[in-house]
Amino acid sequence: MTPFALSHPVVEVNTQPLTALPLNLVALLSVAHHPKAGAVVLFSGEVRDNSLGKQVDYLEYEAYPAMATKMINEIVNEAIIRWRLTFAIAQHRTGIVKSGESAVVVITTSAHRTEAYAANRYIIDRIKHEAPIWKCEYFTDGTKEWGGNCNCQKQTGDANKHIYEFDPQNAEK
Amino acid sequence: MTIQTFAALKDYFSTPYEVLENLSLISDLKTYLIQQNSDAENILNLSRFAVNDTFVDLDFEIKKNDTICIIPPSSGG
């Protein structure tokens, strides 16, 4: 929990990497502002109302908290050093998340926007591919499916080698 | 030994899952689990193994009191 002053009251903001509570994007954004940051990028991964051609009722996220917390912290810290960010945070929901709600948020800030954008994409890619977090999709027809698995190793032949949507090599200055 | 399974793997092995045989390597554990439930072979081949919260290779030697987790492919976000 990080205390910060909004206008007058000091508010406690939940900054844990995993939380069962709704993600408070506005509160997290409030702690992200930094006097040396000219760019603040916020990515919110939200639940769509359809998947696999079916109507989604809700998603349920399961995590292995010990490893997921540690990995998210490591990924964020690596990005802070790599892109010399002024601030970065990532937070993922657990439990039931309904369509239109945020399942994961990543905020990165830096002096200029190039680094904040690059670091943000790096963090979300790695969380999605590597962190021990899983979604189960519950459809309105009553069926459910563990979905959206990372299947990179079918191409890379190694469970620890991933093909990211965003290649940070191309974003280096 | 007791292992923990997650997500889709729980449809094949309840968690915590008790393994009564003495197994020395993670690869032995994987072979054992496939013998117990051959339907799980595909997902076990895609899963990573973690011992005491660190990912390990198949040739890792299991020690007494190790906490073993089987981590299916991630699907967060």
**Assembly context of the chains:** heterodimer
The end-to-end distance of chain A, rounded to whole angstroms, is 34 Å
> Which architecture of chain B per CATH?
Roll
* Largest sheet report of chain B: 5 strands, mixed
CATH class value of chain A = Alpha Beta
Estimated radius of gyration of chain A: 17 Å
Largest sheet of chain A: 5 strands, antiparallel
Beta-strand proportion of chain B: 15-25%
Taken from the alpha-carbon principal axes, the silhouette of chain A is globular
Do you know the CATH architecture of chain A? Answer: Alpha-Beta Complex
**Helix content bin of chain B:** 10-25%
Strands in their spatial order, largest beta sheet of chain B: 2-1-5-3-4
What does the average pLDDT of chain A come to? 91
Strand element count of chain A: 11
N- to C-terminal distance of chain B: 32 Å
Along the chain, the helix and strand elements of chain A come as EEEHEEEHEEEHEEH
CATH fold call of chain B: Ubiquitin-like (UB roll)
Mean pLDDT, all residues of chain B: 95
Compile the SSE list and pairings:
The complex is a heterodimer of chains A (173) and B (77).
Chain A (H helix, E strand, L loop, with lengths): L1 E4 L4 E4 L4 E2 L5 H8 L6 E8 L3 E2 L2 E10 L1 H18 L4 E7 L1 E4 L3 E9 L2 H18 L2 E7 L4 E4 L5 H4 L17
Parallel strand pairs in A: 3-7
Antiparallel strand pairs in A: 1-2, 4-9, 5-6, 6-8, 6-10, 7-9, 10-11
Chain B lengths: L1 E4 L11 E2 L7 H11 L4 H6 L1 E4 L2 E3 L11 E4 L6
Parallel strand pairs in B: 1-5
Antiparallel strand pairs in B: 1-2, 3-4, 3-5
